[in-house]
Amino acid sequence: MKKKGKIVLAYSGGLDTSIILRWLQENYKSEVITYTADIGQKINKKKIISSAKKLGIKKIIIENLKDIFIKDYVYPMIRGHALYEGTYLLGTSIARPLIAKRQIAIAKKFKAFAVSHGSTGKGNDQIRFELGYHYFGPKIKVIAPWRIWKLQSRSDLVIYAKKHKIQIPKDKKGAPPFSVDDNLFHTSTEGKILEDPKKAAPEYIFQRTTSPEKAPNKPSYIAIGFKNGDPIFINNKKLSPAKLFQKLNIVAGKNGIGRVDLVENRFLGIKSRGIYETPGGTLLAVAHRAIESITLDKKTMHQKDEVMPKYAELIYNGFWFSKARIKLQKIIDKNKKKVSGKIKLKLYKGNITIQSRISSSKAYSMKKVSFEENKSFNKKNVEKFISFHKRKINSN
């Protein structure tokens, strides 16, 4: 039978996307092209290729995007100090726009009529993917199986997989796995026991962080060098964005840093509980704020803090390519060229302590802050300053 057009599927090789692949073949009679973006997740390229070939796939694309992901997506977000609901570093949210952009590019290259993803009908990722698809390919059809097929649960997936002889992965306890998303920036784990907020997260689900109790009894030290707002060096060694993050993840993870147990408000209005591990990202967030504290003025820093909640929400909701997010990014990056220097951190059993801040910037003045008498700060002006603000209290 002649295939009816082409579909580009965002393919991980896991249970969900393997079943979706087979389902697309059955229901659309189309050639499926699998697209896998390597953004630093645990990836077995041979297994992905083997699994796709077993399902009759001829065009299998795996693309290394690690440096692009960190440099063009994670670093701008770190510069914005983005935290959704005060806690979540947006590790899943920030990955989807890049994947969507590249998936549409592949679809255009091979003249595919549709793209497809494996996001569930209750989650945020379907929105993030599809807003990205719309931005770059508004005329390309989107197929979202979880919203249209008759399979209603993970149990249904397992039954379908057995029927079609699709291999079912297992977790460390031998059961079907948690819902896991990972990339170079973070790992998220959802589902099963985690759906009950009364129950503690089992230790075996953590993949890239040691528990603080089992972390080394001696602290680790790391120095992060910044230039124009972005990290460039670790311990005076220049590294590519991907390699720099790999290094941060290792040293932070072994010291029990970067764990978050969060109940969040999804874009669709549903509350969900997830476990997030962002070891290197947590280190970098602390270091970046520390370097800004000695290089940026008060007005600039406070303005960034004011726009951050909206900026984080836009990213969480899938509006990375929106004019609103880009406008806020310009505010965030207005003075990034001033943000250069080095931060030394002490890491110990889940804690991060700033050891030193070094910069050639003159934003921080030791003369002005010193308790020793000096002529660099006119204290007589303080009385006028206070009087002025007393009048503002009365006027408000």
- Could you say what the CATH topology of the largest domain is called? Argininosuccinate synthetase, chain A, domain 2
Query: Domains counted in the coordinates: how many?
Result: 2
Structural class: alpha/beta
* Number of alpha- plus pi-helical segments: 13
Helix-strand sequence: EHEHEHHEHEHHEEEEEHEEHHHEEHH
Distance between the termini: 77 Å
Low-pLDDT segments, ≥5 res? none
Annotated CATH architecture of the largest domain: Alpha-Beta Complex
- The gross shape turns out to be elongated
How many β-strand stretches? 14
Question: CATH superfamily membership of the largest domain, which one?
Answer: Argininosuccinate synthetase, chain A, domain 2
Rg, Cα atoms, Å: 24 Å
The CATH class of the largest domain is identified as Alpha Beta
Please list the strands of the largest sheet in the order they lie side by side: 3-2-1-4-5
Percentage of residues in DSSP E strands: 15-25%
Average pLDDT: 92
Q: Main beta sheet: strand number and arrangement?
A: 5 strands, parallel
- Helicity, as a percent range: 40-55%
Can you give a write-up of this model?
It is a single chain. The chain is an alpha/beta fold. The chain has two domains: 6-66 and 91-177, HUPs (Rossmann fold), CATH 3.40.50.620; 182-358, Argininosuccinate synthetase, chain A, domain 2 (Alpha-Beta Complex). The protein contains 13 helices and 14 strands. The chain has helices spanning 15-28, 45-54, 66-79, 95-109, 125-136, 145-148, 154-163, 241-254, 279-293, 298-317, 323-333, 366-369, 380-395; strands spanning 6-10, 31-38, 60-64, 114-116, 141-143, 179-182, 187-190, 220-227, 230-234, 237-238, 259-265, 271-277, 341-348, 351-358. The strands form three sheets. The chain has a five-stranded parallel beta sheet, sandwiched between helices. A hairpin with a 4-residue loop joins strand 6 (179-182) and strand 7. The termini are far apart. The model has no long low-confidence stretch (mean pLDDT 92).
